[in-house]
Write a structure and sequence with these properties.
With about 775 residues, the chain is of the alpha/beta class. It is about 35% helix and about 20% strand. The strands form five sheets. The chain has an eight-stranded parallel β-barrel. The protein has a six-stranded mixed β-sheet with strand order 16-17-18-15-9-19. A six-stranded antiparallel β-barrel has the order 21-25-24-23-26-27.
Length: about 775
Amino acid sequence: MTAEPSGRAGSAVAALIRAANIELIPLRGAEEKLAAIPASTKITITCSPKFGLRRTLEYAELGVRAGHAVVPHLAARQVGSKAELREFIRRIGDLGITDLYIIGGDADEPAGSYREAADVLQDLADLDHGLERIGVACYPEGHPKIPEGTLEGALLRKQAYATYMVSQLCFDARALTGWLRATRAAGIDLPIRIGLAAPLKTTRLLELSLKIGVGSSIRYLTKQRGFVGNLLVGGAYRPEQLLYAIGDDIAGDDLNVEGLHLFSFNQVDITCAWQGQFSAAPPAGAHRLWRLSCLREQVKISLIVTYVQLRREQASANRAARRRLAKRKGTMAGSLEDKIQRSGNVAEMLRNSPAGAYTYPMRPEFSNWRDEQRAWATTAVLFDQSFHMTDVYFRGPDALRLLSDLGVNSFKTFGKNKAKQFLACNYDGYVIGDAILFGLDDEEFSLVGRPITPDWVAFHAETAGYDVDVVRDERSVANQGRRLTFRYQLQGPNALKIVEKAVGGPIDRIKFFNIGQFTIAGCTVKALNHTMSGIPGQEMTGLEMMGPSDHGDEVMAALVEAGREFGLREGGSRAYPTTAIESGWIPSPLPAIYTGEQMKSFRQWLSEASWEANASIGGSFVSDSIEDYYLTPWDLGYGHLVKFDHDFIGRAALERLAGQPHKRKVWLRWNDDDVARIITSSLFGGEQRAKYMDMPSANYATGPYDQVLIGARLVGFSANVGYTVNIGGWSSLAMVDEADAIDGTEVTLVWGEGDGGSAKPSVERHVQTTLRATLSTSPSV
């Protein structure tokens, strides 16, 4: 039990709280957070590998303009050179900042020669920096990756350059004071600012603390009266309890406690309100918060450990589900990064991957693929999309911020009952992937598409400290259970008539890329107005309907019955992928994830059983550098999606790329005679046969890349090929250099792979050939 602090100690605690620094993370919305902090309060701005030094400087300037004394954080591992260090110091000097907090940083690999804070401190001593105060980090509860002896030695070295130190998050009063006494005895006399978590919901505090490795503090928290009760009802942790426990110690001069460093996790309104409560001595009876019953506490500890373990294992369970197939076969156990390292060359690995074209686990044909294609242009077609796409749900107060931090799109007006084509890029501005983003509620969203984009967002949700719950609904080839939802696409000029017949009356107009709701066969159905073919935005010719999977059969039967008089056809897996050729969607650009140090943690998160680890590249374009396959948003026709009205991963790179030449998405209409020649050769050409063209979609790899030439000059890649009756021939989507994207231009396409073909099972031995195609900058239908 902890005794009530004396009057002197209580006054010291209150004074520390009132004068505490508040730490801010430079995330979206932090500008508003600054406005909520009293101008007299000193704020510190963090520096992370995710956002870099530029973001820290931007928010330091915002803080100064708001009237605050500002302490930027400088992470040694993010400083590329002494010149960059000099520039950083110049920038903060221009802002009038005289206090700097220097840390080692969390980046796996340093950007330059600085590996730890001491390296920066030594070079800083040679500069005319003008700093009055320099802070360094200390670790009363140890560091998860650094031995205790190493920490003490490093702190002794840093003491020669620093004027104060800041501790990690602390919860254990005895550990803190014990470490401080030992540190003072070792000759380290830097004043300390105690790192303290500001008041926030206990569940949130647990998640963040576990991620940054202060496990012993968490064990201590579980011994505090009221902690578990707060946890179970979503209550708040009260940081003053630790200060009351050490009140008499910090009131003296021997421990040299200078102040507090409040980790606000950007919940500054709560933090500032809490500070305002301590205008005088501590509340009467505050010490009673620390009095525990041993028997009751054992029960509490058991509850909290169980709860924390469940939350920590949720992400592991999600990853385990994705690895289930590999474990069952006993053939793959590591990560994508492991697989790349073993392969020696990732381009060669993907070129010879066994995977063929993307899998659509649905019935191949319900009538015949030609009539099914014709139906979406003349009557209507109904596709069952319930099986081939990955659905990942993101719920929680940080869900929208998570999406905004990763998506190049604008989110200014995005929310409930809206949808958008979400696009994510890597740190260098190359496309990772796209997916349809659904706004299901104010704090609930889902990403639906091929696995890469939902995986990328889920990775950040699970590892980057967002207050978001993730629920995965895996595509059928990776899911041994039933899907959570059904998903049906009704496409064609009679789509609205069919839905209204199934509903039993008119339905409200749904704006393009908005979500409406109605009832079919007693089931509440949500419907997105978008189109998979034809003209985007045309009045409700395409509706994507979704609802609980338990009602999927009834809704499907009602739609089929309602569509009989309107010429409805059900569509199968042969016709389905050819919709993209007409609409202009390039479905499988290679995700730009296979290289780069900043992407390494994501590759380590992905298993060898993941879609990303088993994707394939195919076609006549061959390079040993996988980065030659990477594409920008402009190359894919997504330049209009890029909005620089918010910060997101890849923004700086895209700003640099925006004014440079790009490729342009185009349609290629293949020459009928050349196609006939190739098909004939593939069937009857013997050893010199051409690569077979499957019908109606001729893609034979996850990511098709065929050379497009003008003369002998490579001008781009053909990316998705097939036949549709609505076009009346073979065509493909392609990306060519902007200067060559001229309507009517005849280009040459190289069909088939070199040297007889790769090792993919979908590739028979064949000889490369060429064909003619006519370029168009608009759809062929």
